[in-house]
Every structure is written in structure tokens, then in C-alpha cells.
Amino acid sequence: MTTIIATRSRFINQAEVVARALAARAKRPRTPPAKVRRILLAHHLLLGDTLMVTPLIAKLRARYPDADISMTVPRAIAPLYSTHPYGVRALPWDPRHANEALFAESRFDLAFVPGDNRYAWLAAAMHSRWIVAFRGDPNERKNWPIDQLRPYPDQPAAWGDMVATLLDGPAPEAFAATDWPAPVAKPFAAPTQPYAVLHVGASTPLKLWPVDRWTALADWLVARGITPVWSAGRGEEDIIRACDPQGHFASYAGDLDLPQLWRLFANSRLVVAPDTGVAHLSRVTSAPTIALFGPGSAIVTGAGDFWRNSPYRAVTVDPFPCRDQRILFRREIEWVRRCARTPAQCPDHLCMQAISFDAVIAAAVDLTSR
Question: Other CB atoms closer than 10 Å to residue 21's CB: what's the count?
Fold first, then answer.
């Protein structure tokens, strides 16, 4: 019954967005603005993808230093933006609920849709005069409100760098730790000794690294005077129990919100995580970060040019035979090589098993020695 209600609420809210968008588009000229005072980034991306929009925000701030830049984000992610990195305002929202606060915003001169083009309808409903997004979405109904469709780059690049190409002009300056002040976080019992965070959870079982290698990595850290602490999402505590049956090391699984997790990462000697949103968050904190890439592409979701100065290493086996799909946000891109198969389609996740303990140790030695 709850699912039926949630589905109905989402449908009603989508219908309201479409109605508002049609009304707004009928009243506004579809011409580029002469002056840009207010800018919107419209999306409802997951954590990692949201953080990878940062290069576009940095580029917009450099181009329009006095503009109000706002970005719609899932409610759980909004607290990360409490310190307004690059002066951006986070507009928390949920497609399943009414969004009157969004519609109360003043008109936007310019809007960008970095991910799914369905959110162009939201940008139009929020009275955005000129909407820019990537071309190639096969569902033309999503593209109707868009004024300018731009191609994805035809050369390999990180998605964050690709998103920045929605705006003409030179690439943004490389990210620096001072560009994103730490968000306000509630107190929690943080480690007091030098420590490393081992985040063993992931958004899909296909990104899980073998348990015995996490255990061996914890032992390796202890031998070097660094205390490992465990991290995972709510409901993933069993993975940590398998890695550390005796409970030798502290676990923060499911206990921390995102600003607290930022603090945990920022003060660590090292963070190791699968290619998931947490690895992107660690990179933003400038903590030494190792990301383990199995089905994902170390090119598409790696550091790219924008985070080139961050202490970060991607560990993967490339090429890998079944990392052969070319779809990114429903667009087929010739140079992309990734895998979006389900656990039912790929029960063994060989790409994660192929990441050796020695390869991770080599990356850890490199990062910690620096």
C-alpha cells in the first residue's frame, strides 16, 4: 500500500511539474538571456554524480562571479552544501513530494540539466528562460523544454569534466581543498589515533571487494601503526562482521550522516572504498583516497582533470573483457567502456575479484608516503 501511495504521489507531482512547465514556456521567449543573474542546475542525481557536477559549478562561478547559482539536490545530500562551495545554493527536494518551495523561486535566466533530461521539465516549471542539456536522450518527450542540446565529448574524459562542457569557455581551475569548506557536522565519537577508513559497502553487490582482502588490508595498516575503522551503509553491517568477526576495530556502519562522514574522511590518513558515492565524497574532502573500480569506468568516474591535484588513486584491471557497455545516462557513447549488469546477470563479479591485494597496497604506499 505504501508503494502504491508513493507511486501515485510521484505521478501527481510529475503532472504538476509538466503543467507548470507548459504554462511557463507559453509565456516566455525562447531566446538566450542578454544578462545572466540567476542560474539553475536541475537534477536529482545520486551522491557521486551530484559531486561530479562540481566542475560545472566552478566554471559557472568563474564566468558569472556575481550570479546566484542554485542547484536542486536530494534532501540527504543538501547538508554537504551548507557552506556554499563556489557560492552555490542547494535546493533540497524529492520528486515524490510537493515542491512548492522550488516553484516559489524567482525566475532563472539560465538552467543546465547535467544528467537525465527529464529534469528539463523541472527547470521549465521553475521559469528558466534558457535550458541547456546533453543531446542523445532517446526519449524526445524529455527534450521538449530544452533550448540548446550539446554533444558529449568524443574523446575519453571524466564525467565531471564532460558536464563542464555544457558551458562554453576554458575548463575550470583545478579543485583545491579551500574551494569547499567542511560542512557543519554534529559531534560523534571520532577516532583519536591515526586511522584509515575502510568503506566496504557499495551501491550494488557487483562492486564489493572480497572480504578476505579487506581483512588483510586492515592487518597491513595495523602493522604500520595506522588503525583501521570500518564504514558501510545502513544494512551493510554483515559485511563488516565478515571482515572483522572479532570486532577488533570500530565500525561506523549506518551511524553517520554525510557531514559526519566528511569529517571522518577529512581527518584520516587514508580512505579505501569501491567506486561509489562515498569514494567521491572522500575525494572532495582531499583525504588520500583509493577507489576500487570493477564494473565502473576509472575514466568516466575517476578524478579527471578537475580533481587532478587531489591525493587519489584509481585501482582497476583495464581492459576487462565484460566491461564492454557504452551507455551513459541512456546515451550511447563510442569510447565509453563500463558495465551496468545486474547481480542476476553477473553473479560472480569477476572484475572486483581481479583487483589484487598487492595493487591496493601499492597505491596505499604511494599515497601514505606522500
Answer: 22
CA 113 vs CA 56, 124, 128, 204: distances in Å: 11, 11, 11, 26
Q: What is the pLDDT of residues 90-123, one digit of tens each?
A: 999 998 887 889 999 999 999 999 999 999 999 9
Q: Which residues pair with 195 in a beta bridge?
A: 227
CB 74 within 8 A of CB 44: yes
CA–CA separation, 179 vs 86, rounded Å?
7
Q: How far apart are CA 231 and CA 91, in angstroms?
A: 28
- d(CA 317, CA 250) in angstroms, rounded, equals 31
Farthest-apart Cα atoms in the chain, separation: 68
CB 166 within 8 A of CB 55: no
234 in Cβ contact with 251 (< 8 Å): no
Q: Specify the DSSP element, H or E, that contains 274.
A: strand 270-274
Using CA atoms, how far apart are residues 309 and 174, in angstroms rounded to an integer?
7
Please list, in sequence order, all residues whose beta carbon lies within 8 angstroms of the beta carbon of residue 284, skipping any fewer than 6 positions away.
51, 54, 175, 180, 262
The secondary element (H helix, E strand) that includes residue 195 is strand 195-199
> All 3 cell numbers of residue 262?
566528511
Strands (DSSP E) along 296-344, which ranges? 312-316, 327-328, 331-332
What single-letter DSSP state applies at residue 80? G
Grid cell at residue 343: 547481480
Alpha helices in the chain (DSSP H): 2-27, 47-51, 54-63, 100-103, 120-125, 140-143, 159-164, 211-223, 237-243, 258-266, 277-284, 350-353, 357-369
CA distance 272 to 287: 10
Angle (nearest 5°) at CA 27 between 99 and 20 = 20
**pLDDT tens per residue, range 143-191:** 999 999 999 999 999 999 999 999 999 999 999 999 999 999 999 999 9
| Nearest residue to 41 via CA among 115, 138, 148 | 115
- φ/ψ of residue 290, rounded to 5: -115, 125
Q: Report the C-alpha gap between 349 and 360 in whole angstroms.
A: 18
